[in-house]
Amino acid sequence: MRVRATxxxxxxSPQKVRLILDAIRGKPVDEALTILQFLPxxxxxxxxxxxxxxVANAENNYQLSSSNLRIxxxxxxxxxxxxxxxxxxxxxxxxILKRTSHITVVVGDE
Length: 110
Prior knowledge:
By secondary structure, the protein is of the alpha+beta class. It contains three helices and three strands; from the N terminus they run E-H-H-H-E-E. The protein has helices at 14-24, 29-38, 44-62; strands at 2-10, 69-87, 93-109. It has a three-stranded antiparallel sheet with strand order 1-3-2. Helix 2 runs antiparallel to helix 3. The protein is elongated. The termini are close together. The mean pLDDT is 97.
């Protein structure tokens, strides 16, 4: 059984989230949450929230035990970009792209 949870439009770059997801992919859920708790990245709690949501979906919707769950897939896709400008000298502007991510975590029993 594979259970999915997704967080859309998370206000962090997908490149930064992928580094966090690489650390937990393939691990048991309890171990993954412990790793996320002690990672130095300030965005680890956003990923931990998605993992917790996937575990809650598995427990409530499919009556799976959280002790046998493992993270099967974890991905971060690019969401929309907020386009802003920074004003420079001589009447010029530089674009600023504030990126967002769609974080998807799939858990399943071992």
